[in-house]
Amino acid sequence: MTQPTPNLGALKNLIGIEGNPIAWLVEKINQQQPPPDPVVIAGCRVWNDAATTINYNTTTGSPFEHPFNQTLFDTHGMHSDSVDNSRITIPAYSVVPKGIWQIHLHAVLDCPGTGAANIQIIKSGADRSFVEAADQEKIIGAAGSPTGVTGYTLDMSGLWIPDEGDYFEMQVAITGAGNINVRHDARPSSTFLEAIFLGAYTP
Predict the structure, then answer these.
(1) N or C: which terminus of the chain carries fewer CB neighbours within 10 A?
(2) Do 14 and 72 have their domain in common?
């Protein structure tokens, strides 16, 4: 059976267009499709460049927000090496959309033989609920484990949907008599704090 040949001229007259009506139709369909979301890469890792040890003890007050004077990478100006340099701050939504972030702390510590030290990640000065309950507060020293260990490696992380302007810090709190050393071995893989954007998401 012979198929009839479409009368493109009649179709053009019917819908009032110039050119190829099939191409016109495809263009109109494509215009109805929303553009794909842009892929945003965002993140920041901070550390200390000196092969030194920062000592915390009960005589100098507690808790402490640990400073970081070097930036390994920072895609959107989230950290200053000199001003409020304990913080990684979430960028504005106009720069990075609201979404899921992974906050990760890696620390090398000399643990106290007496007393205890609590290590935690905090959000905007107080909140730590984004970290798994078992990891919200790492207690080391006499009241926890280990005690009197040099070069102990601690690792904790959590996922969160932060607000723009929220900031994250490593906090060291001393309980009882004693002190803790946070070690820096002049390399970014020693003690560091990082925030990595995983993707846009609005609950």
Answers:
(1) N
(2) no
Residue 154 falls in which region: left (phi positive, over 0), alpha (psi -120 to 50) or beta: beta
- Total of domains in the chain: 2
Least Cα distance to 159 among 191, 196, 203 occurs for 196
- Distance, in Å, from the CA atom of 152 to the CA atom of 172, rounded to the nearest integer, reads 15
> Burial of 104 by CB count in 10 Å (0-12 exposed, 13-18 middle, 19+ buried)?
middle
**In a domain? residue 164:** yes
38 found inside a domain: no
Domain extent for 6: 1-33
Tell me: do 89 and 14 sit in the same domain: no
pLDDT digits (tens, 9 = 90+) for 3-48: 565 555 555 555 555 666 666 666 766 676 666 666 789 999 999 8
Q: Which tens digit of pLDDT belongs to each residue from 38-90? A: 678 999 999 988 755 666 666 655 678 889 999 999 999 999 999 999 999 99
Q: 142 with 189: CB under 8 angstroms? A: no
